[in-house]
Amino acid sequence: xxxxxxxxxxxxxxxINMTPMLDVVFIMLIFFIVSTSFVxxxxxxxxxxxxxxxxxxxxxAILVAISADDEIWLxxxxxxxxxxxxAIERLRSEQSEINVVVQADEESSTGQLVSVIDxxxxxxxxxxxxxxxxxx
Length: 136
Prior knowledge:
Order of helices and strands: HEEEEHEHEE
Structural class: alpha/beta
Helix content: 25-40%
CATH class of the domain at 50-133: Alpha Beta
CATH topology of the domain at 50-133: Nucleotidyltransferase, domain 5
CATH architecture of the domain at 50-133: 2-Layer Sandwich
Largest sheet: 5 strands, mixed
Strand content: 15-25%
Number of helices: 3
Shape: elongated
C-alpha cells in the first residue's frame, strides 16, 4: 500500500487568545479597587471658623459635619448623637486606619462639638477639628 504525501499547505486558523489578556486586566482592576482609599463626605456645607494655627491635611478618610442647627451628618446621612460611635466603629471595621475630621459650623454649639469628640474618643479613632486658615 502506498502512502500519499500531502504537499498542500495546511490552512490553520489564526486566532488571538484573549483569555490571558482578560485575566491580567481583571487582576489589575481588583488591585486598583482594593488599594483605593475612599473619602466619606459629610453631606452638608459647613461654614468653618477661622484659626491662625490651622494646618492643611492632605489625606482624610471620614468627614463628620455639625451644622448651624447642631445636626450631625456623616456619609450624606443625618445621625443622632448616639449613632456617631457605632457608625464610626462600623467604618473602622471596614478600614482599620481611619482619620476623622470634624467640621463644626461657626454657629453650632460648643456642647455639640464636645459631645461628638467624646463619641470619637470612645470609638478610639484619631480626629481633627477643621478650621479655615487666617482670621476674619
